[in-house]
Amino acid sequence: MKRRLAILLSASMLLAMPVSAFAQEADKYATRGDVVDYLLNAADDYNPGVKKEDIVKGDVKGDLKLDQSVSRIEALIMLSRAFSNLPAPQGNDLRVGNSAAVFTDVPKWAQNDIAKLASAGILSGYPDGKLGVSDRVTKDQLRTLANRIFALNGTNPRDDYYEFINKKWLNASKIPAGEMGNGVFNELMNSNEVKVSGIINELVKQQNPAGSKEQKIADFYKSALDTKSRNQDGIKPIAPYLTAIDKATTIKELFEANHEINKATEMGPLLSFGVMADAKNSSVNALYFMGLGTGLDKNSYVSGDEKTKKVYINYITKLFVLSGDKEESAKAQAEAVFAFEKELAIASMDVQDKGNVNKYYNPYTKDKFIALFKTVDMAKMLKDLQLDQADKIIVMDVGLANKSAELLTEQNLNTLKSYAKSMFLMKTGGMLSADFSEASNQFSADLYGVVGEKTDEQIAVSSTKEMMSEYLGQEFAKRYFTKEAKQDVEKMVQQFIATYEKRIQALDWMSDATKAKAIKKLEKMTVKIGYPDQWSNALDKISIKTAENGGSLFSNTVAITKAYTDMMKASLGKEVDKSAWIMAVYDVNAYYNPVNNEIVFPAGILQAPFYDIHAKHETNLGAIGMVIAHEISHAFDNLGSAYDENGNAVNWWTEEDLKKFQEKCAEVIQFYDHIEVVPGSYNNGQLTVSENIADIGGMATSLQVASQLPNPDYKAYFEGYATIWRSTMTKEIAAYMTTIDTHSANKVRVNRTISNFEEFYKTYGVTAKDAQYVAPEDRVSIW
What we know:
Structural class: alpha+beta
Strand content: 5-15%
Number of helices: 35
Mean pLDDT: 94
Low-confidence stretches: 1-26
Radius of gyration: 29 Å
Number of strands: 11
Shape: globular
Largest sheet: 4 strands, mixed
Helix content: 40-55%
């Protein structure tokens, strides 16, 4: 979340400020005349016939004093008069607005107008309950208030297209119990979950041969649903591991305990490694090091948000109490853990940098890596983990790795033990008694505003979906995704790739040499649709048991985790399996994988409203077509563009072209930056740049495909696009996502992206007086 900082200037600094700076500062603030002129234009579609005298009143002599500065209270009164009839907030507006706001500094003569605006949920004051009635009003603040009113009305596509298309759904929207939000993605995920649940229930009712896929699915689900056995076991499944951590008297003994946990469960809480394709040689699997993890994202620690700190400490305290610690000791440990994790967070890279190969690819020789850890026998740890055959370790976050090594000292032993326990408890709590689930639910309620809880059946289905995705995916694909649909989407993808090639050929800012490389990357792009051609056999040899047969949710999850971890370890140094999928078949999502140079579209998303064989073709182009072209564009965003046609991180750009590309990326950052998402929280252009580049490229390409149709229906196209992004969430989650999500808020993805394309302006008659309007010279385009 961005915060405005008050800057105090001394007299000498003011005197040194150039005249142009004074002019820029003054231009920020609105005069009475500015407010009147803006509101007359903004309100005409909502209050037809509104006149200047309706908005502003003069003094006893009739002087309107239009050239004078305007206070917040004056501007708000004029706003209230201009928009004389405001609808009562419903659904999403009620959820994210501030309709219960009461302000302590409003004069009596203004209370009716302010109460009207406040009840509409569009006003925000200061933490002390004041509105700041005497503050001067900036032009940006005035536009923000008007934009909130446009959204509340949702009747004009030229002011707020997202709200115009989705208003009926948004007003009626509800968030299911235990969920953080709702939307098209959620609705389709729930629909898929019903289908998966049907498959599971069929298998549960029938006799399944021992060791079969069907038996494993059915018995895993039974163990996930068996809360009675878990409540009886309590902390028992993990008690020996917690005891081993508690008994450690040295760093060496602590890591020996960590090794025993890894050997038994592959869930050791101290230091983590992964095996993935080598970004510089993508045909071979390499060893990556992640360091010590944290329970929250970086911003939650460094922002100084006291609420987040308190809620997180309370949650960890509860986990320690459930594990057997006394309240006072648990609280002290939790506070130490937060402080420890904060040190790690401060040293770690920012969210937007994690996908940047120039920042995450830091190869160390084995000797250099081992030498980094002065207090840990890293050579032994690598051997214990069966990863010692690696000749290099790629450190993904050098700052975090250095801080991790620095903090692993005997002086920090007690804190490290508390940290290890908290990490392990968070990893395993969902497999234990209901007390742990209740603690997690309370954490979500306190921090993210989540209301209610999912049923035991929903939780069991979700767990089975997550852990048994290979087997369930086969059944899902067999029942719900036809070969005809697969072939149809594959044909659509090839059309988009061909169109993208034409667009690259037509670029006026890129040289022929770089164009040839980009086109080569397109030509070698792998396309995966619906389901894998080859299914993993990682789970074939494991045993899944119900409680009656000596199993549990914990033991079954451990068996699956170990199977996948063993497969991962065995792949180290071997050829990359490029047929593998990252997502489950029923996931409502899609992705571009740069090290494979592939785009992947699971069957789960290839359904209405994303893809509907009965829908108008332009509607599909605005929905699944845009998604397909978006994923293609990731090959050429600020991150994906660092990889060549083989998925290797190699610079294929000329120096001049790369400089032009980076300048265009900077324009995209600015274009999407500081747009209000919910009151007080703003879109972060730097954080979201890669996804925004993909959105712009995706829309440019899919619109070009639409333009080739006879009499293309662009209205259907834009409606299809806006519809798939309709969503609602708690205000807390909406604000939180602006700090961690590399995607812009859904409303921003719609309104800001379409404002770059002339087809939108012509279709809806958008002119310079409308809020959706962006001057041609300010629109952004790359691909």
